[in-house]
Please model this.
Amino acid sequence: MIVGVAREIKDRESRVAATPGGVGEYVAHGHEVLVETGAGAGSGFRDEEYVAAGATLVDDHAGIFARSDLLLKVKEPVASEYDLLRPGQILFTYLHLAADPALTDALQTQRVRAVAYETVQTGSGGAMALPLLTPMSEVAGRMAIQIGAHYLERPNGGSGLLLGGVPGVAPARVVIVGGGVVGTNAAAIALGMGAAVTILDRNVDRLRQLEHMLTGRLTLLASNASIIADAVRDADLLIGAVLVAGSKAPRLVTEAMVRTMRPGSVIVDVAIDQGGCIETAHPTSHSAPTYEVGGVLHYCVTNIPGAVPRTSTLALSNVTLPYGLALADHGIAAAVTRDPALAHGVNVFDGQITHPAVASAFDLPFAPLETVLSA
Model:
């Protein structure tokens, strides 16, 4: 199979979908690998390293799309790339389709076989895990606090608070809505910096787990609208960390709640790539990351881990490589039949939506993957 590694063209997105070491694995499995010139530069990987691993460099961005049977990316295709996609092509990347109707339509129209990192799922119920989303959630959760601390500084538009305070001065109050991977990692960093942290989650069993996992100035609250409203009002830094796998994030923090926050407070909505869990949130970019609503600074960049591409690329490649090799070695039909976790990742297949959360988000027909494959 011809495997292509495209250079990311989303604003200031410097991650790359495969390291030279990963490329070497594809080559060792007998696949031809094409790498777009400069694809790894932002993550610190030189073109020469890819060539040494067995890749062929391709200067033309469109050429990578045209020649690849399996196209590896980090972020979803942007509008200028929609027409480059080909029928039957396997696209393996983050997609977040429930918040992106235009991309969903493009993938259907182009009859792409689209596998989303974020919906590859192992287990079910309380044992469910999202192995390809987890490392970027860890990065984004940890970064959310350092970003929030930066924007709380007065020269950056904030109220002028130090997260940990000092003896005789109270620490900043960090409120985290959602106690999953993002929320847990955000809390760990905030607590380590000495902040007073409140985590809200509707799953009381999860709160019990967090009580044993985290130490410091920590408050754990069972979430409902009234509790959220009270916590948001008192927050100096509010982190949106809600995830419903494959679905658009629920808007748990209303505009009315945001307008009760003190001027100079900061919001970081990490859920923004799934539509955001804060009503006043809308997507921003690394080039223009913030805006104000009611005197509250909002940071809603949709690719937060792209700011630390070296760490993020290494973490992402660690988990995506085995699944990418399965797709290349066996083809998509056999690969998803052999591995139910990978089957959960298939969002669109030959024009049909095969993930129920995506179909539900747009009230479109849902086609079970097994039915599509059997046809």
In short: The radius of gyration is 21 Å. The longest strand covers residues 196-201.
